[in-house]
Write a structure and sequence with these properties.
The protein is elongated. The chain starts with 12 loop residues before the first helix and ends with a helix. A hairpin with a 2-residue loop joins strand 6 and strand 7. The chain folds into 3 domains: 114 residues, Conserved hypothetical protein from pyrococcus furiosus pfu- 392566-001, ParB domain (Alpha-Beta Complex), CATH 3.90.1530; 58 residues, no CATH class; 52 residues, no CATH class. The strands form 2 sheets. Strands 1-5-3-4-2 form a 5-stranded mixed beta sheet. The chain has a two-stranded antiparallel ribbon with strand order 6-7. Helix 6 packs across helix 8 and helix 10 runs parallel beside helix 12. The protein is of the alpha/beta class.
Length: 286
């Protein structure tokens, strides 16, 4: 491998879970199992399955069967729980198969989740938000650092960090990225907008006008620049007469005087720093 080059993600689940592989010795052969004895994993990183692609896979399975066994582990309630291959299992049901090939691995909940994540990443089956949420679980629930997540899934640390940043988007914007109306690049561009409201507005416009990522970046920068325009000094907005009167009163009383004026009505504020100074002001005013 050339110096400095990261290993490719397609290195396999055994490379990612060496301890589990080494402790079990040679792999046992897979076997056929009744399809109803296989159950989906509620911790599966993938939450959406494209119906058209699922039907295409089912059609292929009807013709040539399942070529790669479904990776499972023994389930406490009986049967087996899917670690990797839920899409194949769903398509097999559509194809009318009564039995499916499975491969049983004795993995913990943590190892099973990580294996499912890597398998989906290898196949590029996860959308950007599913990937981000899976990375977040590895960090928040399983105690990984961003660096260790990057190492385990064969990605750079910056890739993991940028993916996690997507979760800072508002829920309605996350939904647009998750269902494909906006890309991951659009999501990163929207994160540079100054406020949540600006992100939501720009997201709607990006979808409606079919902005490119570059166009979205440009509009987000414009929104930022607009929000950073310096506000006019309130003193400059006050009338010259009011400011002149403040100056004359301050000189006359020997203390700072501020007029709070609004359409000819208001109050006069006179500052003092001690009771002696207050007594002096009272002598002048009374």
């Amino acid at each position: 491998m050339p110096p400095g080059k990261r290993p490719r993600l397609g290195r396999g689940l055994d490379a990612m879970l060496p301890a589990a592989s080494a402790s079990k010795g040679p792999r046992p052969e897979g076997f056929q199992c009744a399809v109803e004895d296989v159950h989906p994993n509620r911790d599966q990183p993938r939450s959406t399955f494209d119906d058209v692609k699922l039907e295409e896979l089912a059609a292929s399975i009807r013709e040539i069967g399942i070529l790669e066994p479904i990776l499972v582990r023994t389930r406490k309630g009986g049967g087996y729980e899917i670690i990797a291959g839920e899409r194949r299992w769903r398509a097999a049901q559509r194809a009318g198969l009564e039995r499916v090939p499975i491969f049983v691995r004795d993995l913990s909940t943590t190892e099973g989740f990580e294996a499912a994540l890597v398998e989906n990443l290898q196949r590029e089956d996860l959308n950007p938000i599913e990937t981000a949420r899976a990375f977040a679980r590895l960090v928040d629930e399983l105690g990984h650092t961003q660096e260790s997540v990057a190492t385990r899934v064969g990605k750079s640390r910056s890739t993991v960090a940028n993916s996690l940043r997507l979760l800072k988007l508002p829920d309605d914007v996350l939904e647009r990225v998750e269902d494909g109306r906006l890309s991951e690049g659009h999501g990163r561009a929207l994160l540079t907008a100054p406020t949540v409201g600006a992100m939501q507005k720009l997201a709607r416009q990006a979808v409606g006008s079919q902005w490119s990522v570059r166009e979205t970046e440009r509009h987000a920068r414009a929104a930022n620049n607009k929000s950073k325009k310096p506000k006019k000094d309130k003193k400059l907005q006050r009338s010259a007469n009011v400011r002149d009167l403040e100056t004359r009163l301050s000189h006359s009383l020997g203390s700072r005087v501020v007029l709070k004026d609004k359409k000819g009505k208001g109050r006069v504020e006179i500052s003092y720093s001690s009771f002696d100074e207050l007594d002096r002001l009272l002598d002048k005013l009374l």
